[in-house]
Design goal:
The complex is a heterodimer of chains A (255) and B (305). Chain A has six helices and 14 strands. With 255 residues, chain A is of the alpha+beta class. In chain A, strand 11 and strand 12 form a beta hairpin. The chains are: A alpha+beta (255), B mainly alpha (305). Strand 6 of chain A pairs antiparallel with strand 5 of chain B, so a sheet runs across the interface.
């Protein structure tokens, strides 16, 4: 069963630079994704209005954190196995970036780095240790992105945002899959309006993902009442094992 | 139908864990192994984090081995006395093994030693069981009767103190023997992070000389207690047992274990041994491929082997 919620995001105005008349608007119905027993991911849509002729970048990220991952390497020139751990600092667990055009066509490197837009900017913003130099950092950051993309929690695209002009204003809309792999928590949505290689306007909102009902109860119990949770898990398993044994005993006369 | 797993933090099609449980439970009831060496990598393949996969598998083995032990006990195939001695040894071995991991980690090459031990153990056990059971099957076919030769090793075993008779298994050994070998399996299982059923079964067959059908029931009995301990420790210290996933797995595995136990009674001991040997060898080959082929991802979340 596939449950999909359409979530539109309300974006509050937050004009950054004064080079354009602040026209960036947005509309929302829902910004709260609930994880229940039958949750299998969702959809998030961001829509709004911007100045005509501006390019748009929509970024969704989780708060930055540090992540320690196992690193595979070749041992004795032949065998692949875990050879150590790498720590990635200042990286979000989820990073979605959608833009109307290729990022490098609409913004210079300085602007990309300033607003942490795109994987190269995220790499420059992050710290990876232990690595011997920039080349090794680059290699392992690429591996990091590959792993995140395979879990569907990192994604970038250009041209996916649709725009139409109406009453002299530009309306934009982007729809993206929200992966079930994204952990519960608060996610930041930022929309950047871009003109003449500069970010001219910026607006922010949040998506919150929360466990509810039975899922929340189990997750909470596993953490907060660990011994009771362990004992219940064991008793349930013992009971199920005996129960099925008894069923087979009753029905197993033929053997 | 998909269900969300509250500790694994992922969503899974219910048919996957139920099907996996059924298949691995069948092996469990047939051969007296927990099946962790198959289940844990399969769960990881379906997107379950490694730590949750290993811990939750222990939880479901509690159910499968209860079901299997019960099925084997009904037909008198569980040697509780032997099982308790093995358990005592396994418990001490587990404590030593955990210290062993600390030493390996401090030496900095833990993963290499663990993987190599695992592959070698699987390979040696699988090959020996395969050759031995094949020879034994051929011998039975030609109806040759060879007097059992008294090796130096068996003379030595008989000279050990605390000799005791194990009625169900029909063997007499020093009580030290199951404790020491149970301990040896416990050390290796703790170091390799596996239940050790695939090691305990050959120890019981070839060293303790127990009949194969009693081996299966007794192995399940001691696996049950090991997995109760591991499940509690994993839930208490790592919070990594996913109850919903465990329930889905045990729906399949408890039935699988019963079917396996019934089916196993229709097979001869040598047939059971040779099939288990083939499965162990296939797993060995799979691990060797994993070690030698370039992995698609060079980074992974922590936990598991």
């Amino acid at each position: 069963m596939k449950f999909k919620f359409l979530v539109s995001i309300v974006l509050a105005f937050a004009a950054v630079a004064g080079t354009a008349s602040a026209q960036l608007t947005a509309k929302a119905n829902h910004d709260h994704i609930t994880i229940d027993f039958f949750y299998h991911g969702s959809s998030v849509s961001v829509r709004g209005v911007s100045d005509p002729g501006t390019d748009l970048i929509v970024k969704i990220t989780s708060p930055e954190a540090h992540q320690t991952l196992r690193q595979k390497g070749k041992v004795a020139g032949l065998l692949w196995m875990n050879v150590g751990k790498l720590t990635f600092e200042h990286v979000p667990s989820l990073y979605f970036l959608h833009s109307t055009k290729n990022l490098t066509d609409i913004l210079g490197n300085d602007e990309l780095k300033k607003y942490v837009l795109g994987y190269p900017a995220l790499e420059a913003h992050s710290e990876v240790s232990p690595v011997s130099g920039d080349a090794e950092k680059n290699k392992w950051f690429d591996e990091f992105v590959k792993m995140k993309e395979s879990s569907k929690v990192y994604s970038t695209s250009s041209g996916k945002i649709s725009t139409t002009t109406k009453d002299g204003l530009q309306e934009y809309y982007v729809l993206m899959d929200w992966p079930y792999q994204a952990s519960p928590g608060e996610y930041m949505v930022t929309v950047y309006a871009v003109k003449n290689n500069k970010v001219v306007e910026q607006a922010e909102s949040r998506v919150s993902v929360e466990q509810v009902g039975i899922v929340k109860s189990f997750a909470r119990m596993a953490k907060e009442s660990a011994s009771a949770y362990g004992i219940i898990s064991i008793i349930a398993a013992l009971g199920a094992g005996f129960g099925v044994g008894l069923v087979f005993r009753k029905g197993g006369g033929a053997h | 139908m998909y269900l969300y797993l509250p500790v694994a933090l992922t969503s899974i099609n219910v048919l996957i864990p139920v099907g996996l449980g059924l298949a691995v439970g069948l092996l469990s009831g047939l051969f007296g192994v927990g099946g962790g060496f198959l289940m844990t990598p399969l769960l990881i393949m379906f997107g379950i984090p490694a730590t949750v996969a290993a811990a939750t598998d222990s939880n479901q083995i509690v159910a499968a081995s209860t079901s299997g032990t019960y099925a084997h006990w009904r037909v008198g195939n569980v040697d509780f006395k032997m099982g308790l001695y093995l358990l005592a040894g396994g418990f001490i071995g587990g404590l030593i093994g955990v210290q062993g991991i600390k030493v390996l980690n401090a030496m900095g090459n833990a993963d290499f030693v663990i993987k190599m031990t695992y592959v070698l153990m699987l390979g040696i056990v699988g090959t020996y069981m395969f050759i031995e059971s094949l020879a034994s099957m051929k011998k039975n076919k030609t109806a040759e009767t060879k007097p059992a030769k008294e090796s130096g090793f068996s003379k030595f075993l008989k000279s050990l103190p605390m000799q005791t008779h194990f009625e169900k298994s029909g063997v007499t050994h020093s009580a030290l023997l199951p404790i020491v070998f149970g301990g040896f399996v416990g050390i290796l299982a703790a170091v390799m992070g596996v239940g050790g059923g695939f090691l305990m079964v050959p120890v019981m067959v070839y060293i303790l000389r127990m009949p194969m059908h009693v081996v299966v029931g007794t192995s399940l009995f001691q696996i049950l207690f090991n997995c109760i301990e591991v499940t509690f420790l994993q839930a208490y210290t790592n919070h990594s047992v996913d109850f919903i996933l465990a329930v889905l797995l045990l729906i399949g595995s408890t039935f699988g274990a019963q079917v396996g136990a019934v089916f196993g009674r229709k097979l001869k001991g040598d047939q059971l041994k040779i099939i288990l040997a083939v499965i162990v060898l296939v797993v060995t080959v799979k691990i060797v491929f994993e070690l030698t082929l370039s992995p698609s991802l060079l980074l992974s979340q922590g936990g598991g082997h």
